[in-house]
Write a structure and sequence with these properties.
Elements (H helix, E strand, L loop, with lengths): L2 H18 L29 E2 L5 E2 L9 H11 L6 H14 L3 H6 L2 H7 L19 H10 L6
Antiparallel strand pairs: 1-2
């Protein structure tokens, strides 16, 4: 992987954190619980079921707001030791890979990558989960601010 691809991937991860509202909070989002609280220690996913509204509970945690059940599957798939920042980054990249978005990220086709990942992160435009969705232009701006190059 070349240096620009690596920078685009890092910028994409930062953009996800901006979209999910975790960037710059706590330990740069890596220890943020859904709803804004924090957890301490990365040995395992915090597995806290938090009520977000009248009908919705979530176990989302970390910089990319990963659900506990997804962590369990990815921990096994990627042979991860814990829920550390490196493990969270690896999971987010695997999620993008599964959405067939890595080639777009590497090439700077950021809008295409966001579109492909919209069902993975509820804060992406067009996610359709009934939660707050960010505007495409705002996410592209966050990606560029983080050092990503748009094709």
């Amino acid at each position: 992987m070349n240096e620009q691809n690596e920078q685009n991937r890092k910028a994409f991860l930062d953009m996800i954190a901006v979209s999910e509202g975790t960037k710059g909070r706590g330990e740069d989002g890596y220890n943020v619980l859904v709803g804004g609280g924090f957890f301490y220690g990365y040995e395992d996913h915090p597995r806290r079921r938090i009520k977000i509204n009248l009908a919705l509970y979530s176990t989302a945690a970390g910089r990319y707001q990963i659900l506990a059940r997804f962590f369990d599957a990815y921990k096994k798939l990627l042979d991860l030791p814990d829920f550390s920042p490196a493990s969270q980054d690896a999971i987010a990249m695997q999620m993008a890979r599964e959405r067939k978005a890595l080639e777009d990220i590497d090439a700077g086709r950021i809008e295409a990558a966001i579109h492909k990942c919209r069902r993975t992160w509820a804060s992406f435009p067009g996610a359709g989960y009934g939660q707050h969705e960010n505007e495409m232009a705002d996410l592209v701006a966050a990606y560029v601010e983080a050092g990503g190059v748009v094709a």
